[in-house]
Amino acid sequence: IRVVSNEPVFVDSMIQDPMIHRDGITMILVTVEDVEDSSQDLNLEFQYSVEEDSWEDAYLSEPLYEPGLDQWSVEFDPVLSAQTGFYEIRVRATDTDGTISDWHSPGSIQVINSPPEIIDSELLNHGEDPFSTFFYRNGTGSFFVYVSDSEDSPDQLAVTVSHRFMEEPWEQSFLEEGTYDFSESRWVFNFEIPSFAQEGEYDFRVLAEDLDGEQSQYLEIDNVLFVLNQPPVVLDAQASESLVNEGSSVTFTGESYDDSLVIEHEWSSDLQGIIGNEPSMTMDWLMHGVHNISYQVMDNDNIWSQSYS
User: Fold this and answer.
1) Which residue, of 228, 262, 289, is where some domain finishes?
2) List of residues 6+ apart from 169 with CB closer than 8 A
3) What is the DSSP letter of 42?
4) How many domains does the chain divide into?
5) DSSP readout, 248-308?
6) Angle of CA points 223, 226, 228, to nearest 5°
7) pTM of the model
8) What DSSP designation does 17 have?
9) Are 91 and 107 in contact (CB under 8 A)?
10) Within 13 A of 135's CA, how many CA atoms are on the CB side?
């Protein structure tokens, strides 16, 4: 009669977290029994294989027996350069007689790419007060973004910044393409407030993408800056003649400036009231008397300039 040793038998197994990032760790737990030996006297061998490649154990810790739970555990800890994909796990046990069990499969672990992270952001005003969040049209500034990624260096990431006025759609109309500042370890986005920018508060939104195409969560920052309107200015106003006969022609010419757009002109006489609404006009119907002529303009924010006489 030939008596052979009974093989160890796996009765339960579990993978604590079946999906982890490259910089993550998960635990594999197995319960194994043997007729002749106690579980703690067995020798366990864990291996993994990714995409049906060869079996390895470099990312696995030494198996550890936990007496209170009567089970074995091992950590699966991939390196940052590990291949993404599904890692099939297998384990077998050898008893004190050298009898080896069949391979047992607790399941698979999916290793995924770690997304980049947006750490911080800063605003710099190129005007007199570098910390001011108020900008006039045509004013300039810089927006700094600090990012990190466990696999890629910050300068390898693709960082985009968008802005919006109030609750309007996101756009990038006044932000230049970002450049990486190695001396300060940050991304720099210079901008100039355009003449068509609306007066009010602007929100910013930041997104980072790594070399694997993994994207960070959007970082939305409310009220990053406030665009102020500059009132229009009358630069000059002239009459072709200072003394004319009643019924004779006289030409009035005005010159003005606005940071956006002048939409209305107004000439007025202290004797006849409003006499015209063009930047330049010729008339021959002024009444007899001494007229004090004034000129003012209004911009597209409905703000009037000071009157110029």
Assistant:
1) 228
2) none
3) S
4) 3
5) --EEEEEEEE-SS-EEEEEEEETTTEEEE-SSEEEES-PPSS---EEEEEEETTS-BPPPB
6) 165
7) 0.74
8) -
9) no
10) 29
* Domain-embedded: residue 2: no
Q: Which domain holds residue 132?
A: 117-228
DSSP state of 139: -
Under 8 Å between Cβ of 11 and 33: yes
Residue 287 lies in a domain: yes
CA distance 129 to 273: 43
Give the rounded percent of residues in the chain with a pLDDT score beyond 90.
91
What's the token pair of residue 225?
């800056």
The rounded distance, in Å, linking the Cα atoms of 31 and 140 is 66
Distance between CA 18 and CA 23 in Å, rounded? 14
pLDDT tens digits along 225-257: 999 999 999 999 999 999 999 999 999 999 999
- CB 85 within 8 Å of CB 50: yes
Residue written as tokens 């038998």?
9
Report the SS3 class of residue 83. coil
